[in-house]
Request: fold
Amino acid sequence: MSAERTLRRLERHIWELFGWRNRATATLEPWTVRTALGAVHELRIGDRWDHFDLPLRIETTIPEHAVSGSLLELFVEGDALVSFDGRLTGALSPFEREIEVGSARLIAIEVSPNDSFGLIGDHARLVVSRVVVPDT
Reply:
């Protein structure tokens, strides 16, 4: 088994551990990409997005049943500026992958394919995209 394949498998197992902490989980799919030329594409978990022109803006909606106090868990293999309902809310990176949702219904992110060391990656994909309610 290649080292890259082993790392991907271990990454998946790490994200599965969060299931023990979360009371409820809702996957956020699809994400919508609008290119500079106006073309619309859908992204789902596992899809690469690094072939689009940067800066890249991706949007999705939060399900109606998401409750207050829920968290957005998002890992895009890069950095992401996060906006909820049109207001810049925060940033996510390979080290910070959660942000509180509040009462928002629309998520928009601007992404760049930076790795953990700030280097531009060439295999950026949507790894995790969900809203969770932590068990307190």
Q: What stands out?
A: The longest strand covers residues 106-112.
